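Trying the structure run again after the queue cleared.
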Amino acid sequence: MNFKKIALYTACGVATLAVTAMALPRHVSIERTAMVDAAPAAVIELAASNTGYQAFNPYKDLDPNLRVEMFGPASGVGSGFSFESKDGAGQQTVASVTSDQVNFDLDLGPLGQPTQAISAVAVDGATEVTWTMDMDLGMNPAFRIMGLFMDGMIGPNFELGLANIADVTA
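Done. Tokens:
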């Protein structure tokens, strides 16, 4: 086989992969829920606070060398932290707070700007806490392929964080 045929077949393969990847979903949503023995207001107060969030931050368990630098007010809109870990760097900022939900904006640099939310709703004498993340993968075919694995990569971290919330609020 000559060089031209190899180059043509390689180009066709790459083009086919890119077209196939672009058919994958552009948006990814991840969600985990747990029941916690704490008042919803206590969970919201914890999630909306710089230091409170660090009390249940699952990434502190996953990377003992995680570096966190807090900024903004101690709690509420604008409260946030920058982080650097073995998996990357970025920052998270409280975007809004209601009586039952805290919304966060994340900036992961070249990896994107997902949003996260932690909600807390009273259910039968306990609190149902739901942690979600939504991400627009854009037009990058590699990100769209990675999107197929996001739930499996991020979901267990949310489960750990929810268990940490249960422990911290117990």
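The chain is about 40% helix and 35% strand. Worth checking whether this holds up in the mutant runs.
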